[in-house]
Amino acid sequence: GYTSEEKQEIVRNYIIPSMIKTFNIGDIYGTDITISDEVINRLTDEYFLEAGVRKSKNCVEKICRKALKEIEMGDSSQVHVNLDNITDYAGYPDQPIRRPVDNGICGLITGLSASEGYSTGFTLDIECEFASSTKQNGQIESTGLAGKSLSESSIVAFSVAKKVLQQIDSKNKSLEENVTRIHFLEGGVKKDGPSAGVAIFCAVLSQALNVPVSRNLAMTGEITLKGNVMAVGGIREKLTAVLDELLIFRL
Length: 251
Fold this sequence. Notes:
Blueprint: H1 4-23, H2 25-29, E1 33-35, H3 37-47, H4 54-72, E2 79-81, H5 86-90, E3 108-114, E4 121-131, E5 140-143, H6 148-168, E6 179-184, H7 197-209, E7 217-219, H8 235-244, E8 248-250
Parallel strand pairs: 1-2, 3-7, 5-6, 7-8
Antiparallel strand pairs: 3-4, 4-6
Helix pairs in contact: 1-3, 1-4, 6-7
Domain Lon proteolytic: 103-251
Protein name: Lon protease homolog, mitochondrial 1 (Trinotate prediction)
Pfam family, one: Lon_C
C-alpha cells in the first residue's frame, strides 16, 4: 500500500488534475476549483484509510461534483476548498485523528492496531479499572466489542501482570481482591487480535500500582504467559499512526 505522503502526491499531481479535466470545469464554465495542500493532507490522514487510492479518487470526485453544482447554480464563480469548508464538500472523515489526552490517569494506555486493507494504523485507547461484577474477585473481564483473540490476550496479559505485581510489591493484593475490568474505547467498533497484550499488561499494572503512564507512549505486541513479547505485525501501518499522532513507539 501507499504511505500518506505517497497518496498526497498522487492526489495532488494526478487525481485532482484528472478530475478537473474530466468535468471540463475550466473549459465549460471558465472557472476553477482549488483544493489547498492542507485539505489534501487532511484527506489522506483521515478520509483515505485504505491501501490503494480508490477512495481518494471517489472523494475528489465527490468534491468536484459538489463544486460543479455550486457553479451551475450560480452560487459561486470559483470554488476554494479549505479546512474551513472541507466537510461541506467531502463530508466527515472515516477516522478523525485523535490526539492523546488525559496524561496522569492510572490505568489508561495508548495501544496500536493495524487493519487489513488499510494503509495506516490506528491508536487503541485501553482503560483498566477495578469494578463490581458478578465474577469472583481476582478475575478479569473485558468490554468494548473485544473479539475472541483480544479477550484471550487480555486474560494472558492479566495473568502475567499478577505475577509481576507480586515480584514488585508482594503486599499489593489489588488484583486478587478486585474484579479487573479492561475497556477498549470506541465501544461501537469491533476490535480483535493479540497484539494489544503488552498495552493491556501495562494498563493493569498502572492501575494496580497507581502509577500513570504517558499517553504519548504507544505500545504494541503480543505477550505470552511467560512474559515474552512475540514478533509484531503491521509495523509500517502502526508507525504511520505513531507519526500522525506524534507519539513515542515501543514494542
